[in-house]
Specification:
By secondary structure, this protein is mainly β. It is built from two helices and seven strands; from the N terminus they run ββββαββαβ. The longest helix is centred in the middle third of the chain and has 10 residues.
Amino acid sequence: MNYNRLTLGGFLVRSPELKYLPSNTPVCDFTIGTNRTWKSASGEKKTDAAFVDCVAFGKTAESIHKHFAKGKPILIDGYIRQDKWESKEGQKRSKLVVVCERFYFVGGRDPAPAGEENQAAAAPAVDAPEYSAAVDDGVPF
C-alpha cells in the first residue's frame, strides 16, 4: 500500500520566499517549526523541535507569500516529496520536502491597519492545482 498525505501545523521560522520557474509558475519556499513535548521515564518534561522545509506552487504560493511572515502560525495539507540532486563536488544529495497543496489560517485575526480589512485572517483554505515538475537547474530549492 502507498499513501502519502500529511497535515502539519506550526509557525513559520523565516518569511516565505517567492520565485518563479522558467515556465513562469510561482514557487514559494518556507519552513515550519513544530515542537513535541513529552515526559521522560523520570518524569522530566522534554521538548523536541523540528524544522520542516515546505514548498507551494501557483496561486497557493502567491497567497502564502502575501499573507504570511516569520512567526505566523499556519496549518497545511500536502504530501512528502524527496528531492535529489548532485553537489558541485559530485556527491549525491537528497532531502524531504513537504509540498503544500492546501493551507489554513490559524491563530486568530491580526489587527488590521486603520481603515483596512484584514483579508488574510478571514480567508478560507486555498487549494493548489496538481503540480509535479522538476526544477530545471537541478537544485531543488
